[in-house]
Amino acid sequence: MEISSKASGADMVLGRYTEKMEFTIIPVTPYQQNCSLVWDEAGRAALIDPGGEAERLLAEVATRKLTLEKILLTHGHLDHVGAAAELRERLHIPIEGPERAEQFWLDALPQQAQMFGFPPAQIFTPDRWLQDGDSVSVGSMRFEVLHCPGHTPGHVVFFQPEAKLAFVGDVLFKGSIGRTDFPRGNHADLLAAIREKLWPLGDDVRFVPGHGAMSTFGIERRDNPFVGDGVAAGV
Questions:
Q1: Which of 16, 75, 97, 193 has an alpha carbon within 20 to 30 A of 132's alpha carbon?
Q2: Nearest 5 degrees, angle CA 92-CA 128-CA 107?
Q3: Across 12-16, 63-67, 180-184, which has the greatest mean pLDDT?
Q4: Is-contact 128 96, C-beta < 8 A?
Q5: Are strands 44-48 and 33-39 parallel, antiparallel or unpaired?
Q6: Where are the domains positioned within the chain?
Q7: In what helix (H) or strand (E) does residue 215 lie, and over which residues does it extend?
Q8: Are 190 and 184 a contacting pair, CB within 8 Å?
Q9: What share of the chain is helix, strand, coil (3-state, %, to 5)?
Q10: Is the CB of residue 75 less than 8 Å from the CB of residue 145?
Q11: Dist CA 57 CA 55 (whole Å)
Q12: Long-range CB contacts (< 8 A, 24+ apart) of 222-231?
C-alpha cells in the first residue's frame, strides 16, 4: 500500500510493507533528495540519508511519536549526509555507513557545501563503517548491506528482504542510473553493481532512489535505457 501525504508541508510517500515496518520519504534540500524515515511496530526508527533540513526531519519524527535510534548513510555526497553530524550530536545516536572508501567525500564536506551553495557542513566519521554482507538492525528491522560502487567508491544499498524493499541512494533511478563523472566514479563498476548485486534480489523488489519516484527492479530491467536487459544484450 502506498499513499501520499502533505504532512510537514511537503509531499511524502508513506508505505506499509510488513506488520513490522513502515516508512515515509521526505525530500530535502534544493536537490529534493529522498530522505527515508523507517520504523517498526514499536516506533523504533532510523533516518536513511538525512541530507539536510534537520528541524523538518525531527518534526516528522516527533509527529509520528517515533524514537530515532540510528542514522544510515548510503554514500558521502552532501545532499545525502548534510544533516547527519548535527542529528548525531543533538540526539546522541550512531551513524552507520557508508563503506570506508567514502571518507574522502566526508572530508570534503566543507568544500562541497561552498561549491553548491549549501549551509556550512562539518567533516565527520561514521560510528560504524559498513561492508558488503553486513547487516544493520533498527528495532525489529534488519537491513542487508550491499556494496555498490560506481557513483562513488564506497556506496552501499540497504535491503529489507521481508518487505522486498531497497534503499539504493544514487545507484539507480526510475529510468536512469547514477552519475559516474565525479572523482573516483566508475561507470563499469556501477553497471556491474546493478546487474550483479541488485537484479538478483528479484524483479518484485521496490526501491527508493536518492531522487525522484520509486520503481521496481523488474521495471528497470525491462525499460531502463542505461542498464536494462535490452542494453546488456545489445538490443
A1: 16
A2: 90
A3: 63-67
A4: yes
A5: antiparallel
A6: 2-228
A7: strand 215-216
A8: no
A9: 30, 30, 40
A10: no
A11: 5
A12: 223/175, 224/172, 224/175, 224/176, 224/177, 225/175, 225/176, 226/176, 226/177, 226/191, 227/172, 227/177, 227/191, 227/194, 227/195
Count Cα atoms within 13 angstroms, Cβ side, for 205.
25
Task: Give pLDDT, residue 119.
Answer: 86
C-alpha to C-alpha distance for 91 and 225, rounded to whole angstroms: 42
Question: What are the pLDDT digits (tens) for 134-184?
Answer: 999 999 999 999 999 999 999 999 999 999 999 999 999 999 999 999 999
If one counts every other C-beta atom within 10 angstroms of the C-beta of residue 27, the result is 18
Topology of the domain comprising 2-228: Metallo-beta-lactamase; Chain A (3.60.15)
Which one, of 92, 11, 80, lies nearest residue 49 by Cα?
80
C-alpha cell at 191: 553497471
Residue written as cell 561492508? 131
